[in-house]
């Protein structure tokens, strides 16, 4: 399990500060959608330059013009870029083709996707998805091991999991051994991000 730190709703300086504090505990660095909207591809370039050894995830949440946006993110230095599951099949296909050409990966965000879509994504060659409870859904839904159920028929598909994950969530997720556990607010929104990230990472192997 990789700890993917989601940098959302932060200024560039706050991102830098939190990364400097948490870098030893974090495996994958996610540059959040809002941060990319604020600073563009430059922030991906800068973070990759500062952390070349980390896997950089650009949370582009692409839903159209997928070849172009995939290329933008991967050429800027991302190792993985995200595309929404509801996107047209052509978008999924061209994102995967572009990522293959550039030696990158595409993570398909299953936010609000119906279960049947997973079979179609599998047929399109998708091998990495994110099981995601969105920020605006977190008031009415919380994370549990059940989130992995729709992926049971697809053991070859790797999963990241996201949405209000905290230290308390880790025992629920650990038995499923996701490729990445995505944590945002429970690290970036607390007084001691370093301590929070370290505790979460330690809990992966308890
Ligand atoms: O993808 C995310 C969300 O849609 C906001 O852009 C977050 O990165 C993801 O949900 C993790 O953040 P937390 O829910 O705060 O842990």
CATH class: Alpha Beta
How does the major sheet shape up?
8 strands, parallel, barrel
- Count of DSSP-assigned helices: 9
Q: What order do the SSEs take from the amino end to the carboxyl end, as H and E? A: EHEHHEHEHEHEEHEHH
CATH level-4 homologous superfamily: Aldolase class I
The outline comes out as globular
**Low-confidence parts lasting 5 or more residues at pLDDT below 50?**
none
Heterogens: ligand LJD2ZHX5
- CATH fold-level label: TIM Barrel
Distance between the termini: 12 Å
Structural class, please?
alpha/beta
Protein architecture, described:
The chain contains 9 helices and 8 strands. The protein is of the alpha/beta class and 206 residues long. The protein has a single domain (2-204), classed as TIM Barrel. The chain has an 8-stranded parallel barrel, surrounded by 5 helices. α4 links the parallel β3 (55-62) and β4. α4 (66-76) runs parallel beside α5. It is globular, with a radius of gyration of 16 Å. 43% of the residues are buried. The structure holds ligand LJD2ZHX5. The ligand O=C([C@H](O)CO)[C@H](O)[C@H](O)COP(=O)(O)O is lined by residues 6, 8, 30, 32-33, 59, 134-135, 162-165, 182-186. The site of the ligand O=C([C@H](O)CO)[C@H](O)[C@H](O)COP(=O)(O)O has 17 residues, from β8 and α8.
């Amino acid at each position: 399990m990789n700890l993917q730190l989601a940098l959302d709703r932060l200024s560039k300086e706050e991102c830098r500060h939190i990364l400097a504090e948490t870098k030893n505990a974090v495996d994958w660095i996610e540059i959040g959608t809002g941060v990319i909207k604020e600073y563009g591809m430059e922030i991906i370039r800068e973070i990759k330059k500062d952390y070349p050894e980390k896997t950089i995830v650009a949370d582009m949440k692409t839903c159209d013009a997928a070849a172009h946006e995939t290329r933008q993110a991967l050429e800027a230095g991302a190792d993985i870029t995200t595309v929404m599951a509801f996107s047209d099949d052509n978008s999924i296909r061209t994102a995967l083709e572009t990522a293959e050409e550039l030696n990158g990966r595409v993570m398909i965000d299953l936010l609000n996707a119906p279960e049947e879509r997973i079979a179609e994504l599998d047929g399109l060659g998708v091998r990495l998805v994110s099981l995601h409870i969105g920020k605006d859904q977190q008031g009415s839904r919380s994370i549990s091991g059940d989130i992995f159920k729709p992926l049971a028929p697809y053991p070859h598909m790797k999963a990241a999991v996201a949405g209000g994950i905290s230290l308390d969530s880790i025992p629920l997720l650990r038995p499923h051994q996701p490729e990445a556990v995505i944590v945002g607010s429970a690290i970036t929104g607390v007084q001691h991000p370093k301590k929070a990230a370290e505790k979460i990472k330690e809990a992966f192997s308890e």
